[in-house]
Design brief:
By secondary structure, this protein is an all-beta fold. The protein contains no helices and twelve strands.
Amino acid sequence: MKDLCNNIAIALSYKGTTTTAAANGTGVDLQGYESAVLGIITGAEGDTLSSSVFFEISLEHSDDNSTYTDVAQADITNGTISSGGIWLKMDGTAGGDPDSAGLVGMVGYIGGKRYIRGVIAKTGTHSNGTILSMFVIKGNAHHSSSNDITAHAS
């Protein structure tokens, strides 16, 4: 086995909370790292997701942590970007169904911007909400990381 812990850093972009509305995750600074992954963990769906009640998760990037734009297909690995930077649609269908077990997903970022964040869009009425959390794993550090846990409020 090789040491992974001292070669990555993890930052929270959107804290795990019952989500009923659209939200922007906190920007995560990638300075000092060569690779990144945006991950999402959900709880069981609180509302029955469908073609009219769903969440869309997108990835945005920025040079200054102020002006964000949608990523393009060339900026990611392990996924497909649709209009608006969307890489995951949670609508109760295969690949987008947290059902009773929850869902874990990730997309790699290989773009050239310093900051990234996840964005949650919602369609329909989410009365009960679904627990959502987004995080960024930063890898290939220029120097070994301190492996501290970085928390960001959102």
